[in-house]
Amino acid sequence: MAGFRKKPQAQASDTGSALASHGGIANTGNMYIAEFHQHVHPAPPGRDSTPPPQRGTPVAALTPQDATASWEVHQAIAVGPGEPGPLPMYVRRDHDENVRAVVARAASGTSAMVVLIGESSTGKTRACWEAIHELPAGWRLWHPLDPTPAEALAVALEEGIGPRTAIWLNEIQRYMGERAGDSAERVAAGLRALLQDQDRAPVLILGTTWPEYWASLTSRPAPGEDDSHPQARELLEGKALYVPASFGETALEDLRTLSGRDPRLSDAMERAVDGGITQYLAGAPALLERYRAAPPGALAVIRAAMDASRLEAGSQVPRAFLEAASHGYLTDDQYDALPDTWIVDALAYTAEPCKGTRGPLSMVRQRPGTPVTDGPRYRLADYLDQHGRHERRFTAPPASLWEAARDHLKDPQTLQALGSAAESRWRDRHAIELYQKALDFGQAEVFADLAWLWEEHQHAQEAERVLRQAAITGSGEALEDLLERLLDQDRHEDAETALRDAAASGNPAAILLLARALEEEGEADEAAHWYQRAAESNDPEVLRAYAAELESNGDLPIAHQLLRAVGDHHALRELARLAAETGPAADAEQAAMDAFAVNEPTPLRDLAARAEAEGCDEDAERMYLHAIAAYERRRRLRAAGTVIDFEGGPRPLSEFVNSGTQLLPPGETWALRSLVALRDRTGRASAGDDALRTAGDDGNAWALEQLLRRYRSRGQEEQAESLLLSAAEADSPWALWALAYRCLHSGTTSETQCRALLERAAAAGVGQATRALVEEAEQDGRTTEAEQLALRAATAGYTTPLRDLIMAREQGGQLAAAEDLAFRAPAPLRRAILRRLAKGREGEQATAFLRRATDEGQAWALGVLSACLEASGEPAEAERLARRAADSGDRQALHDLAQQRAARDPDGTWKALLLHGLAADGTTTPAW
Questions:
Q1: Which of 100, 603, 848, 907 has its CA 20 to 30 A from that of 51?
Q2: Secondary structure (DSSP) of 136-202
Q3: Fold observed for domain 57-253
């Protein structure tokens, strides 16, 4: 597409210079005014006129890196590519406005003080950090620390503190009160005097503390008790500002807006509990420090919980499991050195809170009435869960974890998930044990994986046993596989026995199959018994199959009863069909409505079309309106918070130059289309317009476009333009995009207008508008802007601009730039685009790229890199990487390598690996 006309560089430069000059003049003026004030108002007689020493750092010189390095702002979590800076983007809350009001008072010349009170990691220090950056030039920020915080401040107050000094008293209990020592009351008295001294104004005092310390500092003594801190109490009177522990609705809405621009905020949005955004952001590094400093027993417990969670056993695990699993994470010497109380000590260490958040591993308190099935359970902290998935992604757990799961976990779905994790790592013996335990607990669906593993290891009898057990447990698929196997081997008696055993155990499929077989053999009485059992089943497929048999036999009332009992969309579709064929019109329409309510539109559509064909236009219109209302509700739900793609496919923007090209916006349904056609056919064109206008006013872009086309086809250009402009004024995404696109290709609209419309359309969620802005920025050489726009769109779910940008750089020979941008892509796109880039590389270029992908956590790259190295004559490294891939859950890479080498395998090493799989430690399992 054509880019915008470029602004003259001089104009852009002049604008920037003018703004810079304006700020510079304003700041310089403040300094001149301050100096003039000192000349007009000299120090009073008797006071030392020597100016006090300058303390602290100029506010203008502070950088985001300084916040965590020098000013005690909590370091935030790191989640990978896309972080816009060392600090997460800031979301203002109600208390921020109050802090800024105090800062503004100081900036205007009046000394002021505020103390932010809140629990650990609620955002107190960060709020102060953000606020001080609103101070004008000439202000300095000072943090008294040495030799002790209280002593440093006491000495400075006696020597003098100059105007325009912001005093940083993070954790104010270090400066006054019982915890501050002998200097505490001197500090409080000195600060009171400083705030009242007009000759040293303005100064700003920013403090933070926890609620318990604030209560201690401001509480009055009981009668007869000594008053240990009267100066502190008087100083702090009226200075409190409370910081809530959680984000309110407005702040959460603002956070959602910013989360697409900072992956740390997105991560906090997803994982923080009860609005504790700042606790999650700040507590994570402390959790990591606690984890890394853990003694051996505690470290083993945390790593066992990490592995359990990343292998889909859940973040809450029983204590008995943790104790049994943990020994495999300890060396012999570490295990021998453990005290008898090691598990108690380890869990006490992991339970201690970190900066307002739960500890690394904390007990989950059982609520009253909750059944306790496997003893106390412990929950892994969310951030350590995430960290463990990255840190241990290439590490297979020890045998103790698989064995502990087998012996202590009781949830069949968890056991199945762990069995799958073991299988994907080629730990087949452990997988079989876990799958079998899941089957024993009633998870019949696990039979296919378990039987396949037994077959893979040449144990056909065990595979058959599994099918029998699953059939008895209730699996219709297992029964079908078992009967097919037995009948193929001409084992008819065994097949009948298996069928009867499964039916007797309550397998619904077996019950119906047995009833059919008995009926065919003339055993009517016994067949009737089993048919009655089938009717009492709660299996939807079996009931639908039985209803079909009843219908074919003419037993319609019972068939209807069974289908109503099932109640899914398949059954309700069949009921609607039967009602349309056999019942009165009212019953047929109601049955069609019932099916439509469970997302089965066919009966209602067919019924409305038949009514229209028979001339019953009112009936058809009523059904169309019912369907339209439902479709519109669903469309609004789908559209909420999503990026809109008006292309309907990968069509280039140039296709929209022709005004006759349909944009294919969302919102078209058979019901709305049919209603408009019906009204047009009956000569009520304006009524068709009304239907489209109603839907368009509700946000249906297809309806708006169709109405616009109708106006233009009739020559009603004024109405068409009015419709388009009014829809744009209401921020209709489609209308904004239509106007923006027209601007792009009209050749008569200014660049400023084009950009404004595109930005409005992009803000309304139009993907193509963002794409146009990205293309324009890239064409004009504004590479960083193009990348930021594309990354933001990809984070919101519209990946086309970022994908196109990466591939354009790849095809243009900018391989490094393409790679760097691909590695910054959101996770779902990153994997796909990196694999695509890998296919275009060969030799050393390919291996270097794949090594980087591996280092960045792309597990798939291990297997691809292994294959490349095997082909290039590096067998040892190829094997090492293939085994590492198996440890990470990619079974295929080592399997392929083993098959290639088995043909030239004189000692049978690779054949043994293929036959027996891997032990937990990565060696080949002995024959089993």
A1: 100
A2: PTT-EEE---SS-HHHHHHHHHHH---SSEEEEESSGGGTSSGGGGGGHHHHHHHHHHHHH-GGG--
A3: Rossmann fold (3.40.50)
